[in-house]
């Protein structure tokens, strides 16, 4: 859907909330996201969900989850109901949801060094660790309604023959030797994750705590975009949060700060630093598969994700 089509779909969807004001496009990617007015003139975020990615039941479950998190004392976006009391509307092939707007600036962008000084970076990662721990604690205390459904990012979904995000070793930009290297990493990291799974912390996770989904306001951290929320390993959550730091010179310090913040709120496994590296690698491998089919085989992004996975793999295997 191009931008012009997205605008038309957004304005059509907003009628379900009684809104006629034109929205402002923020991003046209997996979900198409607009800044919009809510039914009472408040600032809101309109999402046009990617067809076939999440079922309507899964989206409704995400929106119920966000309301439960707010009830548990967290600051996350929650749904604004349509004029007929629903949390979803339709516009052509897209399902739409309207969410409360959270103020703040994204922590950063992928592949761009963080803008703040090293000390501030560590403080923000410590705060992020605390916020992710609170997310897990509040989520564990919820009583989920009948029919609640989100994907389970278990070992097979991460590393099986048909991973949820794609067979990363078949990224079309990989040479035979490079593909073999990723398969070696897959076998070794699977052993680490299988050992962790025997007693590791498991439950609902945000699943996509990347810089653009982390808002900073003062020294506070707030999470947005729960579209990839799933049942998963809590250490995978932290690995995702570190995935865009892999090439920063202070990567190790940021990892320590993240673990320190999390551990201040919630128990960590004894081998947390080793697991953090393993799950950071896991995210790099998954992203190498995610890009397959989303871009043409010769698109620069396909190779970019492959090179990132290879670099993290070589470091981890070493």
From TrEMBL:
Instruction: Kindly give the Gene3D superfamilies that the UniProt entry links to this protein.
Output: 3.90.1200.10
Which family is this protein grouped under? Belongs to the pseudomonas-type ThrB family.
Q: What is this protein called?
A: Ser/Thr protein kinase RdoA (MazF antagonist)
Which superkingdom does the taxonomy of this entry point to? Bacteria
User: What is a biological process (GO) this protein takes part in?
Assistant: threonine biosynthetic process
Assigned keywords, A-Z: Kinase, Transferase
Organism of origin: Shimia isoporae
Pfam families cross-referenced by the UniProt entry: APH
């Amino acid at each position: 859907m191009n931008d012009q089509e997205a605008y038309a779909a957004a304005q059509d969807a907003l009628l379900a909330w009684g809104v006629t004001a034109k929205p402002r496009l923020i991003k046209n990617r997996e979900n198409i996201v607009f800044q919009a007015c809510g039914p009472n003139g408040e600032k809101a975020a309109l999402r046009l969900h990617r067809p076939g990615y999440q079922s309507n039941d899964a989206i409704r479950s995400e929106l119920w989850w966000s309301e439960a998190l707010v009830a548990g004392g967290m600051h996350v976006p929650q749904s604004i109901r349509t004029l007929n009391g629903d949390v979803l509307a339709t516009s052509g092939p897209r399902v739409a949801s309207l969410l409360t707007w959270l103020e703040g600036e994204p922590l950063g962008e992928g592949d761009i060094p963080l803008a703040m000084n090293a000390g501030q970076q560590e403080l923000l990662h410590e705060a992020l660790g605390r916020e992710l721990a609170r997310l897990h604690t509040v989520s564990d205390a919820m009583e989920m309604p009948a029919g609640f459904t989100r994907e389970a990012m278990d070992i097979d979904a991460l590393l099986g023959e048909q991973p949820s995000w794609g067979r990363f070793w078949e990224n079309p930009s990989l040479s035979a030797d490079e593909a073999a290297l990723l398969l070696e990493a897959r076998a070794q990291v699977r052993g680490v994750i299988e050992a962790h799974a025997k007693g590791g912390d498991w439950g609902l996770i945000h699943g996509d705590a990347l810089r653009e989904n982390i808002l900073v306001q003062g020294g506070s951290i707030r999470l947005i975009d729960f579209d990839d929320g799933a049942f998963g390993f809590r250490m995978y959550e932290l690995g995702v949060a570190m995935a865009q730091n892999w090439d920063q010179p202070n990567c190790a310090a940021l990892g320590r700060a993240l673990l320190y913040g999390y551990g201040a709120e919630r128990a960590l496994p004894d081998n947390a630093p080793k697991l953090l590296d393993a799950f950071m690698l896991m995210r790099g491998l998954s992203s190498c598969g995610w890009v397959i089919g989303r871009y043409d085989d010769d698109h620069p992004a396909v190779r970019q994700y492959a090179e990132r996975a290879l670099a993290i793999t070589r470091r981890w295997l070493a």
